[in-house]
Structure formats: structure tokens, C-alpha cells
């Protein structure tokens, strides 16, 4: 016999409608209640979800006995307090990214979730896309060989955020993907960037993340690009991946290419590069909606009392990297140890 | 009555054949002599240029009375000595990029050229392409508005160099373009990168160059990319450019796009972004061979005793930035003042 | 004071949900009732549109006094009968494409609509896209010069239809666009194609449509292409358009290119071609949902008792071309006069 | 001991320089003599090939005892006479495409070549590209399954020919590729097209070629397209190919995709389509210069007295299809039996 989880969403702003639509379409959950402070947004929610209760009090969700999972889709500064209240009232928690405004808040949530034995899942939606699932599998099967680099360009025109810079806005996508697929602990992070408007928030920035064994990751985030680019190169000693997230077909291409460096017979300081230029293939990548997959996973983790990969610890690791990027930005790109 | 300049090329390796072909096709110069130390390469040169003299002694070019312009296409470590000898014997000099191994060498060449009143031109071929010429014109006409950023990705698989890292190999292209089009003095540079092979030379690297007024430039150079990318974004307050150098048509696209930040009536700390999403156009870009255009310019500068834009000072500025990138690499990306 | 039109939809299959969603989102109409024969599809409709009545009897829509507009989204073989019944009961009618199974049926609908003074609109949705609107405007402003050709490729893998061949499935899009933008009466049509499966229905086909003044149109439709292509070239004496409908940005490119043929001085039979290779530009194309625009237009036509451009006459012209393509297919591509 | 073949080229116009460059670079042949009637073109040839004799008399090549192979790169109307003279004087012959102006001329060359036991090779260069070689191999290995269709788009702006229409100019490429890879005899051909300039020669045209077993080929050739497209779709029951000849990398993509039609249990007239959407891969395609490969093949055929695949019979089959396309054009696309 399957349980049905009762869901309460807090926040019906930019991302809330997507959450509400997917939670209401999933057979194993029931979208019981939506809390939204603004009346006009409550009206929009009411029209789209006539069978869901609307409320303007967060406690109708965080403390209500008929709610199993609290979904927090509010500005990041409020995440901690809401999650803390929900956990305290024995709810499971789903939090939008970034998980919290500080890593300290993140650690307190980790601790409380552990004490309460509740699931905390951070909504890093990208992890549940077909592309990232396939990349993860390729890396786990050692198909790329030794990992060399991860390079992501995530740029387009707008939307400027009011409260966070472009790193906090866009980089969590890549940071969570890296956390998931690279299976390696970052050692240091450096960030450079510039603001061109009176808000003072960086609108273009570059992050570098250092790993052991000379692996390096780099992320270009930009609100000022005339064109939208979502392209990631992942290089290994054996194969290399190009992931173009804007393509609906063939978004993932795997190149059987590499370089071997051979010591020259003439001199031990002289190397000859031998290039392997093999074929490319584009695997079939599932196109199921990522949020629906993530809800599947939520249900599965709760049913089996299993810790999700995108748990509070993972979310806090991402926040710690964002904090380090802020520190590095203030020091003109000096690397910050993690 | 037009003069015909007698040309002597030193070095017939990777780039030498291109130089020889273009110098021999240009009506205002005569390719008199090629010096090449390796016998097999001299044979190749002889076959391609039966009317040109071959020699294995550099002084047949640097010191010969029948040579007007010495073209130096040898490894960078030899540039200084050859250029110095040529200038000393009252030759004009054309040097491949990067101009010298150190900025000190560069300064000594600047001084000697001045004293001898001879032209030194550094072969930054890209400056003579239709794309860069058009970009330069757009910027000079203030069509982009205030300059915000220059972002270049210059990656492909190989060719690994033996003596220099990927920055010294590929970044001079962008550094010379930036020197030419931005019209602004760089203030600091930082570089990060990693080597994945026994040579110890970085095969992937990221450069950031800081300018006044929050303008920022960033260059991704990489010998380990599975695909070739040559894409540059240039953002200004009014228009933005995407330059894809791999396209034979429509390589340059100009977007009439921008953002205006308006202070909110509610709060002076609150801004509303207003986006302008205008049309894109791809201007007609000339497709004349860049090297031929550059030889035109060489002849013109010598005839009119005019300082070229890509003179020894410009070449030395590029070398200084490369030196700074080395220093920054050693300090994990700490910015180096210029 | 604005009227609100009451809408009744018949058919909730492949396209019905899109219609229902857009009619229910439009402020000037009310989605009163949906008729669907299959119970499981009625269930789906009920979930998505809880405030709309469901019925299994078409007469609840075609004959109900509280319905103003009957929307017919059923298989093409039923269009005529339903439209006829609706018009007879003084409803306005919206019919999915192709309008009817035969041009004779089409003519009878034209006649009845005239007699009843009711609007009949055929849902050629493409006409309301930003791309087609922009192309129409360019042609009307004579920006292309004299029209030379229209060439469309509309191919992808699947979906095989059960009752019609690939021409009846995909070509109505282009035929309706041509009818709208070319402003010229087709003179003849020829069609070739092949079937590769036991259904005997052509799965790949090529249509040629002849116009006066040597203008020619050609359409490649194909259910067997490994990749999806939606590309149209429109050539005129002055400018040329490339429309790639799969791009969300820059889907429309206008090339200031052309050829002038100059009689040679040597011989009156000898011509010299002079090529104009001007710039390309991509205009801003509106991205409003086409169906919503079309509903706007429906309301406007009904309010002002104005004949829509996509009326029954236009729909019947398309059906006549489809009939001619069938006749030509049977004669191995012999041209059929229209 | 290897023989060296002495080559004489007639015609140094558009394609002649490519031929001369490749013949002069090939180790197994010697470019002995070039015949060109126009003095200015002879000058250009002399500069590029100082070691080759120049002449203005075709008999210096067709009848000279020191020539082994006559290369005919003149206007098509002269091909027959030159080839006939060369064969009569016991030369092997290389003819540019199309081989002759009429199929009757082609048959007389076939006959004479047989009688004289000499090689006649028609320069269908595309057959020697890596892409076509790979496609041929895939088809021979039955990797595509049963062949369904060949669809080619070969369009760009210009160059208008003076003496032939766009079909004679561009279609021979595809016709020769089809002749080579499809391994099936065409049954009929139909062609439609239009001329928009005073020359009266078609500048846009569409060819359809019918084969047995419902295989169909279609070629769009166009001198009036604003953009250059060189794309071919090749569909089989098992796999499908997309060949984009403008890409230097990944020009060939093979899709493991297909459709199976299953008879419905409900009705024998009702079929269910089952789609196989497997992965795509891009094989490594050799990038050797096609003309050099073709010269290799010429030498090999002469040495071994082996009939080339692109012999006079193949060339005549292409000419016969071009003649049929002319006949069909005059009959508005009526199919012409072959």
C-alpha cells in the first residue's frame, strides 16, 4: 500500500508555479496547501490550482498536522527560518537553491534534520535531467578516464536579481552538478567579476574551483551576454564531453579523443604528443521532466528513510563555495581554501 | 615610382610557408631569400619557391645589403638576437608573435628601432582580418556604447607546444586584439591554469585582464578541448557583439541589446532593469587574406616612415602581459599589477 | 462594453488540449463546454478544466443556445458535418486544418456561412506566429522585390498518421502560409512521393506549386527524416529570407542579396551576373503564443462582422491544392491545373 | 619499379588550377604540359608551374608522344572531340564532369576506349571524399537496411553559368554519388524548375529520380539561395544519415533510428508505428584531398589495366540523366523513363 505525501508550498513567485504544477501532477503526492503573502499571486495560484487550499500564513504549512513535506520557494534569506520551523514540527523539507544564505545556517539545518530524522532535499533540479544523469553514469563507469577539467558557460541577457550577484544566481547549477558528478572534494575557489550598474552586484563573473590531481573547474556566469549559451566541456584523459543544454536533441556529445605524451628518445625533457581523434557519439538522453523525477526521488527517499544525494550536506557544501566566491571577489580573485 | 622591398625570411617551419606564399604573391615586395637551418625544410622551400635563394646562414638575411626587410619566423627565444642584428644592419623587421621572450628584450628592440629609425612590425595577423577591422570600427564609432567586457574562448585539441604553455601559444591573439580595439590600458592581470601531462606546461588556462571603469577581459585557452571553438563576446552598454571566427559567413553578429537600470520609486536601493532586445545584424566583413593586407600595411608604413599600430611597443605590451600571466600562475591567480 | 464569447470545443485529442488551454486563458472568451466521445479523454479534460462542462454529445455544442462559437478539433472526415450543423444553428465556427476532406464540402460551407452571415475561421495557426507576420509585412512592403521562389523543408521522424499521407498532414502549414503571404493565385501543382510501409500512405513527398511570373514554390514533407528540419527559403529579386522555425531566437534572417544580369557588350546572348552580397539582419519577431493571437483575431472578426483572412474560402483553396496533389501523385507528378 | 605518368592538361580556367596543383604534387605523375588558349591564363599557369611547358595548341597534348594521360578541363561542348582525338592517339583520358554534352557522344567514347583499351575516367571528385567513401561503405555493409530515399539540397548564391542551367551545373555531383552508392538502376526521372533572368536558363530546379522498390531520390539545386547549404539525408529502414558537407568536423552523422509498422490486432487495415530513437554517432572521416586520392586511383587503374568505377559508362549514365531532366523540364515535370 502506497502512502500519499501531503505537500505544502511556501512561495508562489518565479519558480513556485513549476513546483505546484509538478507536485499536482505526481501520483504519489497531494498538493494540499500553498502559502503566498502577496494577494495577487494567491489569486494566480487559486486559478491554476482550484483544489488546493491557499493561505497567507507560513505556519499553516510549517506547523500544520496535515502536511508531510514543506516546500520552501521563498527568497534565500528566509530559507533557514522556515526550514528550521518545519523540521521542528517534524516535517520533511524541500528547499530551493541556494539552500541558505550562510553555511552556518546550513550546518544548523543538517544537525536538526539528523536529530529529527527527517529528509531535507535541496532542489538542484539539473541533477535529475537526462543529460546530467548520463554524464554521471559515464564518469562512474570511468569512460572519461582520469578527470581533467569541467568548463561551463552559462550566460544570457538578464534577468538581473535584486539581492544576489550573478554567481549566487547562476553558479549553483554548476556547483551542484560538479558536487554530484566529480566525486572529488574541492580544495580552493577563486572568483573574479565586475558590476556595471548602480546596484553594485556583479553581473559578469568567473569562478575557478581547484581539485586534487590537477583537476580544475571553471564557470562563466553572465547577465550581459547578447546570446544565451549553456555549454559545458568535460575533459578526461580518455574521452571528452560537450553538453549543449539548449539543444533539445543531441544535447550530449561524447568524443573518443585524447592525447598521449610520449617521452622523446632524444631527450628526457622532450615529449611527443600523440593525438587520438576517434568518433563522436550522442547517446539517447531521457527527456522526462526533471522536477517530476526529483519528486519520484523525494518519495523514494522518504519511504525508505534514505539520505538523498542532494541533502542538506550537499546544499551546505554549495553554500560554502558561494561564500568562498564572495570572499575571493573581495580579494580580487585570491584563492580561498575550502 | 614605386619601390619594391626585398624580403628575407628566417625560418621555414610551421608559419614560414604562409609567410613565403604571401610575400611572393604581393606585387610590392620581392621574396629574395629564405634562411632555414634544417636541410629537409630548405628542400620543401626550394620546391615551393624556385625563384627564391635558400641559405642556412641567418646573416645572409640580417646583414645582407640586398635585403630591406627581415622576417623572423623562428622560435621565440631567438627573436631578440635576430631582430637586434637586423636593426643594427639597418633592416626593417617583421617578427612573429610573441615578439620576444621577455619584455626587457622588447624594450631594447624599441630603443634600437627608434635610434635606427626603422620599422618593427609584430605579426599579429588577426588585426588584419575583416572581422577585427569591423569590430575596431564599430568601437571607434561608439556603436557599442561604454565598453563592459571582452570574453574569448579559444580552444581545440592540440597542438601541444614543446617550449611554451597554452597561454603563450594562444593568448597573444586575443591580447593583441584587445590592445588594438579596446583603446584602454590594462591595469592588472591574473591567470589560473593546470597541466595534465609530464611536460608541466599548462594545457588549460584562464586569463583575466582588468581595465579601468570596471571593464574586464577574460580568455579561455585550452589544448584539451574535444571541439574547436573560437568565439568572442564583446559587451557594451548599447550593443553587443558575438564573433564566431569559425564561420566563413556571418562570423560577426551585432545585437542591438542592452539593459537600463532604473532606480525604483519605492526605494533608492531598489532598481528595476529595463531590457532592450533589438534586432541583430551581420555586417559584410571583407574576406581578403589577412597576411596580404598586413604586407600592404608594412609597405605603406615603410614608404611613409609611419609607426605601425602593431609596432615594437605594442608587441612589448603583449609580452609584458604574458610575463604577468606567468607570475600570476605561480601565485595561484593573484592579480599582478601592470 | 465588451461581449464575452461562449466557446464549445468538439474533440479533446492531440490538439484539443492546446485549444482548451488558450481559450480558457483568453479574457474575451469563456470555455463553456467540451465534447469528447472517449471517456478517458473526458477525464483528462475534466482535470485540466474543472470549471468547464463536459459532454459526449456533439449537439450539446453545435445546437446549444448558450454557445457562440463551435471549435471543431475532430478527424477531418467529420469536419463538414459538424460545421454544417453548427452554422445551421447560427454558430460561428473554428475548424482545425485541413478544413474539410473535399473541396466540395468546403464550398458548401462557404455558401452556408454566407447565407447565415457567420464567421468561419480555419485554424492555420502558423499565420499568427511572429515569423509569418513579419514575413508578410516584408513582402507587402516590397522589401523582397519581385518574388522568385518559396522553398520549405518540413521533415522529422514520425508521427505517422493512420488516415492521411504526409502531404495532408504537414503541407497545409506551408500551403496556408503561401496563400497568405504570396498574394498570388497558384496555377498548377505537382506532387511526387513514395510509401515505404504497408499502410500505402506516402511518408515522403515533394510538392511543386506554379505561380504566374515564373514564381515557384516547393515543399518537402517527410515522416522518415532522422532529424527535425523546419526551414524555409524565400527568394526575391532584392532580398532573401531564411526562416528556421526551430530557433527560438533569430529564427528569421533577411539577406540583402541579389543578382543582376547585365547584357554583355560583346553579344546580346551573353550575360554577366553581378552579385550583391549585402548584410544580413534578424529582426525582432514577437513571441506571443500564436493561438492566443488567433483568438484575439476571432473576437475582433466577430465583433466587427469582418471576414477573416483564414476564412472558409482560404481553407477551401488549401483543400483544393491537397486534392490536386493527390491527383498528381497518381499520375507520377504530372502537373494538375488549378 | 614504378612508372611515372606524363600528364597534359587542356584548359586552365576555373578548375584547371586545382587539377594542376594536385597533379604536380602527386609523386606518381609528372605534369608535363598545359594547353590554354587564352594568353593571360597561360601567364597565370606559367607563374604557378614554372617547370611545366605551356602551349596554345590542344594537339600538343592529345597527339604528343610524350603524354600518357590527357586531362580535359574545357567547356563541356568540346569534351567529346578532345577525348576522341586523345583516345585515337592512344592516350588515357581524364574528363571533367559532365562528361559530354550528349549521351550519344558518351557512347562513342565508351566504344573507342574499349577498342583502344584505354582508361577513361570522369572527374566526379566527390566520390573520393572521406564522406562519400564512408557512406558507400555503410551502405555496402547493409548498415542502413533497405534503402528508402536520398535527399540532397545543394544551393547557394551564384555562380550563374552562361551555357548550362543549374541542373547541369550542380546536379552531376549528386547524380554521380547516387550512381556510386545506391547500386541500383534509376527507372525514371522528372525535373521542374524556373528561370528568373533573361538568359532563360533555370536557376532553381528540383529533380526526382525513381528507383525500384519505392526508393526515391530528390535533388534541390539553386543559384539563388541567400545561404550556402550542402545537406544530404539518406534514409534506410534501419539507420539514417545526415551529411552536411560544409562542416569540417562531424560532417557525417548516422542515426540509429527507424520505424516499424505493426498491424493492429483490431483491424488488418490499421497499423501502429513503433519508433526506434537510438543514438547518433559521427564516424571519423578521412580529410585527405579528394583530387589527390583520385589521382592515386587513376595510377592504380592504369597500372593494373582496371576499369575505374567512374569510367565512361558511369559518366554517360549521368549525362543520360541530365538529358532526361531537360526533357522533363520541357514537359513541366512529366517523368521520363530511362
From TrEMBL, chains A, B, C, D:
Gene3D superfamilies: Dihydrodipicolinate Reductase, domain 2, NAD(P)-binding Rossmann-like Domain
Classification via InterPro entries: Gfo/Idh/MocA-like_OxRdtase_N (IPR000683), Gfo/Idh/MocA_Oxidoreductases (IPR051450), GFO_IDH_MocA-like_dom (IPR055170), NAD(P)-bd_dom_sf (IPR036291)
Boundaries of every Gfo/Idh/MocA-like oxidoreductase N-terminal domain copy: 5-124
GO molecular-function terms, A-Z: nucleotide binding
Listed transmembrane segments: none
Segments forming domain GFO/IDH/MocA-like oxidoreductase: 132-238
Protein's UniProt name: Gfo/Idh/MocA family oxidoreductase
UniProt source species: Paenibacillus mangrovi
Amino acid at each position: 500500500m502506497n502512502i500519499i505525501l501531503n505537500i505544502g508550498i511556501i512561495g508562489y513567485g518565479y519558480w513556485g508555479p513549476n513546483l505546484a504544477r509538478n507536485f499536482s501532477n505526481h501520483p504519489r503526492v497531494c498538493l494540499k496547501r500553498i502559502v503566498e503573502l502577496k494577494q495577487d499571486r494567491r489569486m494566480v495560484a487559486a486559478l491554476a490550482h482550484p483544489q488546493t487550499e491557499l493561505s497567507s500564513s507560513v505556519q499553516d504549512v510549517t506547523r500544520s498536522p496535515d502536511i508531510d513535506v514543506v516546500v520552501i520557494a521563498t527568497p534565500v534569506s528566509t530559507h533557514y527560518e522556515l526550514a528550521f520551523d518545519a523540521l521542528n514540527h517534524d516535517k520533511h523539507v524541500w528547499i530551493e537553491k541556494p539552500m541558505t544564505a550562510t553555511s552556518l545556517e546550513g550546518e544548523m539545518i543538517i544537525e536538526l534534520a539528523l536529530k529529527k530524522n527527517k529528509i531535507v532535499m535541496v532542489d538542484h533540479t539539473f541533477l535529475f535531467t537526462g543529460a546530467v544523469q548520463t554524464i554521471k553514469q559515464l564518469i562512474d563507469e570511468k569512460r572519461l578516464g582520469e578527470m581533467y577539467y569541467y568548463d561551463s558557460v552559462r550566460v544570457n541577457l538578464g534577468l538581473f536579481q535584486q539581492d544576489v550577484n550573478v554567481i549566487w544566481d547562476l553558479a549553483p547549477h554548476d556547483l551542484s552538478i560538479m558536487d554530484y558528478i566529480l566525486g572529488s572534494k574541492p580544495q580552493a575557489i577563486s572568483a573574479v567579476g565586475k558590476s556595471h550598474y548602480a546596484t553594485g552586484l556583479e553581473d559578469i563573473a568567473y569562478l575557478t574551483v581547484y581539485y586534487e590531481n590537477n583537476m580544475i573547474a571553471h564557470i562563466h556566469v553572465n547577465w550581459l551576454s547578447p546570446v544565451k549559451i549553456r555549454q559545458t566541456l568535460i575533459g578526461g584523459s580518455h574521452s571528452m564531453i560537450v553538453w549543449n543544454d539548449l539543444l533539445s536533441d543531441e544535447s550530449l556529445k561524447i568524443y573518443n579523443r585524447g592525447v598521449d605524451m610520449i617521452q622523446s628518445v632524444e631527450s628526457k625533457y622532450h615529449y611527443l604528443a600523440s593525438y587520438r581523434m576517434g568518433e563522436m557519439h550522442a547517446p539517447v538522453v531521457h527527456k522526462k521532466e526533471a522536477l517530476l523525477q526529483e519528486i519520484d526521488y523525494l518519495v523514494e527517499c522518504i519511504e525508505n528513510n534514505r539520505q538523498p544525494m542532494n541533502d542538506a550536506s550537499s546544499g551546505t557544501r554549495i553554500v560554502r563555495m558561494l561564500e568562498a566566491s564572495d570572499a575571493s571577489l573581495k580579494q580580487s580573485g585570491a584563492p580561498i581554501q575550502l
